[in-house]
Amino acid sequence: IDWNDVRKHKYGHLSESASQYQEATDILDLGHFTWDKYLKETCSVPAPVHCFKQSYTPPSNEFKISMKLEAQDPRNTTSTCIATVVGLTGARLRLRLDGSDNKNDFWRLVDSAEIQPIGNCEKNGGMLQPPLGFRLNASSWPMFLLKTLNGAEMAPIRIFHKEPPSPSHNFFKMGMKLEAVDRKNPHFICPATIGEVRGSEVLVTFDGWRGAFDYWCRFDSRDIFPVGWCSLTGDNLQPPGTK
């Protein structure tokens, strides 16, 4: 499903109503799994859209494979590194830090503040750093950086999006349904339920998986989405587990 086609539909212009996300899933059938049927069968309610730190209208993804950008090293958050787009799905990018290997790939939304155009670090008085576990000798970093950027396709500024604001507080309640990144297999987004609420944190439980993949996260985590998000972005929502 192409995002640009979806946004033209009457459900594409979203308000804060979670019911509109649910209605969107009536149109965009997710294989054998549809949220509308699933919510009725489980007598569940979707978490309202205002619970999430996500854009009410999902951002378009105009990035391309091999484009270069600056990204925060997820294993060393004080470092800004050069990253290459190695995968695309929905509104997310699979990124690989230049000088690292494919075992440390990570995913970011196109409207994440942790990714910026090339030159942003220098403009703000910073210096690009080698990633944690840089494969070469640290003294070779400047020459490596020069070779990496020479002739590379830089992601243009216009395709980056401003990060949405956080909700004012934690609006989640136990039992609410949502879509969530499987952190053990982060290329997957799956149906999930709020299992517990504790202060600013929520327990994300994956439907049909007996707790093997559950995790705690802040209420404003970028890894959790409203029901219907994948339908609108064209991402692939995994069906619930069978256990």
TrEMBL record:
GO terms for biological process: negative regulation of DNA-templated transcription. MBT repeats lie at residues 33-131, 139-240. The keyword Repeat applies. SMART domains: MBT (SM00561). One of its GO terms (molecular function) is histone binding. CDD domains: MBT_SCMH1_rpt1, MBT_SCMH1_rpt2. GO terms for cellular component: nucleus. It is found in: Nucleus. Keywords: Nucleus, Repeat, Repressor, Transcription, Transcription regulation. Belongs to the SCM family. This is Polycomb protein SCMH1. The lineage of its organism: Eukaryota, Metazoa, Chordata, Craniata, Vertebrata.
